Amino acid sequence: MKTSKIICGIMAAAMSAALFTGCSEKKTTLVMATNAEFPPYEYREGDSIVGIDAEIAKAIADDMGLELVIEDMAFDSIIAAVQSGKADIGVAGMTVDEDRLVSVNFSDPYTTAAQVVIIKEGSEIASPADLESKKVGVQLGTTGDIYVSDMQNVTVERYNKGFEAVQALLQDKIDAVVIDREPAKVFVSQNEGIKILDEEYTIEEYAIAVAKNNDELLADINASLAKLEESGKLQEIIDKYITAE
Predict the structure, then answer these.
(1) Exposed, middle or buried, 71 (CB in 10 Å: 0-12/13-18/19+)?
(2) Residues 120 and 97 grouped into a single domain
(3) Does some domain include residue 66?
C-alpha cells in the first residue's frame, strides 16, 4: 500500500510538472520572415522594418494576442525559414505559385499586384514580348525570376536585392528589370533616366506563407485576415502606402 501511494505521488507530481511546463511554453510571439528591400511592402526606416506587410502582420498578431517579431533575411531564404520553424510566417510580397506550394501552404490572398518591366528611357523595348534576346535583371527567388527564367532566348541576371538590379540597368549592364509594380514605382521615382512599361508583365496575388504542418496557424491567419478585410483595416493599411492612380 505504501509503495502504491509513493508511485501515485510520483505520477501526480510528474503530471503537474508536465502541465506547468506546457503553460510556460505557451506561444507569445509571431515570427515573420521577410526581406526588407521591397518598398512599400517592407523596408527599413531607421532601425525599424515598416511597410504594408509589416503592418498587416502586426494587425494579425494583435488579433491573435501575440507579439510580432520580424526577421530580415534574403528573399530566397524565407520559405526555408518557414519550413524549418525558424519563422512562423513568410510575408514578403510573396506570390502563390505551384513551385512554392510544394514547400509551404499559403493564406487567403491579401492584395493583388503585378510584375512590370523597367527600362531605360530611349530603350527599344516597348512591351514584355520585346525582352526576347535581351539581358534581364531580376531579384533572386522572386516570381520575376521564375517568369523570366521560363522565357525563351533571354539571359537572366539575378541579384540579391531589387535595387541592385536597377543599378545594373542604370550602368547598362542589363537591358531591363522585371519586378513587382510598387517597388518599381519607388525605384523609378528615385532614379532619373528609367521608366516602367505601360503593359504589365503579369497580374498576381500576394499571400502569407505558413509551414505545411501548421494548419491551426493557417486557419487563425485566415480568420484574422477576414476580420481585417471586413472592418476595412486591410484596405486602410494598403491605401496608406499606395496612392490610387
Answers:
(1) middle
(2) no
(3) yes
Residue 133's domain is classified under what CATH number? 3.40.190.10
Q: Is residue 17 part of a domain?
A: no
C-alpha 190/C-alpha 131 separation (Å) is: 24
Give the 3-state secondary structure of residue 65.
coil
- Grid cell for residue 169: 540597368
Look-up of cell digits 535581351: 134
Q: What is the DSSP string of 162-185?
A: HHHHHHHHHTTSSSEEEEEHHHHH
**What's the half-sphere exposure (Cβ side, CA atoms, 13 Å) at 227?**
13
Range of the domain at 134: 114-203
Is residue 78 domain-shared with residue 145, that is, in the same domain? Answer: no
How confident is the model over 204-241, as pLDDT tens digits?
999 999 999 999 999 999 999 999 999 999 999 999 99
The total domain count for the chain is 2
Q: How many CB atoms are located within 10 Å of the residue 208 CB? A: 30
| 0.85 surpassed by pTM | no
Strands (DSSP E) along the chain, which ranges?
29-34, 37-38, 42-45, 48-50, 67-72, 89-90, 104-106, 111-120, 135-139, 155-159, 176-180, 194-196, 202-206, 209-211
Q: Tell me: the pLDDT tens digits for 98-157?
A: 889 999 999 999 999 899 999 999 999 999 999 999 999 999 989 899 999 999 899 999
Residue 6 inside a domain? The answer is no
Nearest C-alpha neighbor of 178 from the set 223, 142, 152, 214: 142
Classify residue 7: in a domain, yes or no. no
**Surface-to-core class of residue 65, CB atoms within 10 Å of its CB (0-12 exposed, 13-18 middle, 19+ buried):** exposed
